[in-house]
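Q: How would the structure tokens look for this protein?
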Amino acid sequence: MATVDESQVAFLDLETTGLDPIKHEIWEIGLIVDSNEYEWQLPVRVGGADSAALRINRFYERVKPLSEVSHNGMEAAFLIAKLTAGRHIVGAVPSFDVGFLEPWLRSYNYCPAWSHRLICVETLAAGAYQIMPCGLSKIAERAGIDIETGQAHTALGDARTARAVFRAIYSHD
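A: Here is the predicted structure in token form.
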């Protein structure tokens, strides 16, 4: 059975107000590093949001009032830059996530220092299970992983699922 040293990876997922990093924004970040879980909700302007994205990630059901947002952007950016430095980003289509995260970090004058070799669990699953990438929930189902009710399309929930899929693939014969 193969294993991998998870001290070299950071499991990441974002929820955004749409698919275009130029006109849409990050509103939720989930990150798992060395078994420590982090979650941030960021204040956003949803006037230019894609309504389909807000439906999928259940924005209006889950968004916290500004008074309850635990970290301001500067604090979150510092911690994310620090925790991901030198690590491989692992997630479901992590190129999407870092496409949003990199300019966001730079807007706070932090330079992303994660490995440029991103690890996509959907791509890994394609090889391990001989299936085409088809979305994190379907990949998890194929790997025999149960997703907690209400956790799909939440940043931390999807980071947890990506970690479970990653572990399943590395222990798969």
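The two ends are 7 Å apart (CA to CA).

Residues 6-170 form a domain with the Nucleotidyltransferase; domain 5 fold (CATH 3.30.420.10).

Upvote if useful.
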